[in-house]
Hints:
The protein is 44% helix and 13% strand.
Amino acid sequence: MNVSIFGLGYVGAVTTACLSRDGINVIGVDINENKVKAIARGESPIVEAGLTELLEAGVEKGRITATTDAEQAVNNSEISIISVGTPSRSDGALDLQYVYRVCEIIGKAAAEKGEDHIVVIRSTVLPGTTEECAEILKKHSGDVNIEIGFNPEFLREGSAVKDFDEPAFTIIGTKSDLVELTLKDMYASVDAPFVVVEPGVAEMIKYAANAWHATKIAFANEIGRVAKHAGVDGRKVMEILVEDRKLNISTAYMRPGFAYGGSCLPKDVRALEYYGKINNVGVPLLDSLSKSNTAQIQLALDLIRQNDYKKIALLGLAFKPGTDDLRESPSVELAEQLIGKGFELKIYDPAINESRLIGSNKEFIDSKIPHLSKLLVDENKIIEDVDVLIVSHGAGEFRKVLEKANQSIPVLDLTGIVKNLKSVKNYEGIAW
């Protein structure tokens, strides 16, 4: 296998070294002559543990060459990997000029060569970029066929070689069987699950991962700031927190859906916000949680308005399935706003029986929806004479309701319960 890698920065240099070690012939391409000369000599252009040794070995075995001549690189390879930079512009947008320019160059070179080619984007780009690059390649490649894919990297500076060898997964975003098979061959030495998805999903997972890492760092720092002001060692707090692999470090709460609610999360987040405010401890991430939660409820309202629904059937009123706790349930907030804005509303929740509601739970719902009993219906009446079925949590009974419903009734899914239900045709999810 002969691969040309465009861009010999951090990702390009590490990818060059590791692929050559695994028996692949690599041509490094860059407009910076100093980088090209360093790679050609087997020298690392960056400080990274183990990288120089791999580059030296690759050059000695004749598996690594480097050039500033893009056409030469395409002529001597079947696959081109794009790993050029995507810096921020002054407004925060990505500057994709280098990615687009390389696509144009590869397309023209492939047309001159007269042979089909594979292009793999490894630069970090937002969803839709791979499709745009496919159009650029097609425009410049003439009659030559170019197959394209996106292959995000998860290399951390300081441990990049180890991360290349031991990733959590290898992700390929492509619609091409040829790209899938070729990259499986290229990464045959990497022991990790191989995940093939649509290009947009592959592009987005890189951003989701990086944003999650940034969120964890900011969260730990804010907890540390609050803890220190309270005379507590924040390091010890976080050490204990991450020991919980059932909830804290797990898949729990990590799926898009409706807003959080209940008797704990809303009030405890508010308490931390208040503590930070009165003690002048900056916690902007924690301050943003309630705003983000409210925005998710507003999004559900916006989707209802956009579709001009009038008669609403709400499946789920408690804040989650398996409980009758209505306190600060986002479904209650949604229902209250719908009523206030003149929508016709009826509600089905198998866990809710108004006669059994007591204490603060009853006080809360009475303050929000004082005539709840007039809105509650059973699983049969909930599908009668409605414009839309809104699913707010994942109670198993709701799947039965959706199976009974007329296929012409639209479904707005706020929780992700609808999977493999043939009866659901007119369907929209809140985040999918």
